[in-house]
Amino acid sequence: MSWNRILLSLKDETCQESIVDIGNRAWDCYRREKEPVGFAMFHATDSLANGGLGDEFIVYLTPVASSVCSEISDKYPFEECQIPARDEPNMAFVFGDPRMMGNLRESVDTDALVVT
Questions:
Q1: In which domain, by residue range, is 36 found?
Q2: Which one of 52, 71, 72, 94 is most buried, by most CB atoms within 10 A?
Q3: How far is the C-alpha of 108 from the C-alpha of 100, rounded, in Å?
Q4: Separation between Cα atoms, residue 59 and residue 45, nearest integer Å
Q5: In this predicted model, what pLDDT tens digit does every residue of 58-71 receive, in sequence order?
Q6: Rounded distance, CA 39 to CA 98, Å?
Q7: DSSP annotation string for the chain
Q8: Cβ neighbours, 10 Å, residue 60
Q9: Angstrom distance (rounded) from CA 113 to CA 60
Q10: Which pLDDT does position 52 carry in this prediction?
């Protein structure tokens, strides 16, 4: 199982509706599965090189959330991704198992620390 994300264009007029729809569907999954350990959803945005707000809104789902929310992936394609970082722009824990905040990477800057 892996982390997944859903990318939504902030320029799309239906972005806000999609965010609400994904959240409602995720809540339904979370309650239906009796609030499973390891289930969490996070929100973030991409950023521009100058530190401004980018064009995409990102919904992150933990592996547990990804596995029990097939009705979301049927409508909004999941993209496998690495574990998000605590310092991603506008990173926010939305709901679920709060212990999953401890699983986030320390920093997006660690992406550049590749030893060759």
A1: 3-112
A2: 72
A3: 17
A4: 9
A5: 999 999 999 999 99
A6: 9
A7: --EEEEEEETTSTTHHHHHHHHHHHHHHHHHHTTS-TT-EEEEEEEE-TTS-EEEEEEEEE-HHHHHH-HHHHHHS--EEEPPPBTTSTT-EEEEE-GGGGGGSBS-GGGGG----
A8: 25
A9: 23
A10: 55
Q: Nearest CA to 100 among 44, 36, 46?
A: 36
112 Cβ partners below 8 Å, 6+ apart?
A: none
Which of 52, 63, 65 has its CA nearest to residue 23?
65
Residue whose tokens read 């809104």: 57
* Distance, CA of 18 to CA of 8 (rounded, Å): 8
Confidence category of residue 47, pLDDT binned at 50, 70, 90: low
Domain count, the chain: 1
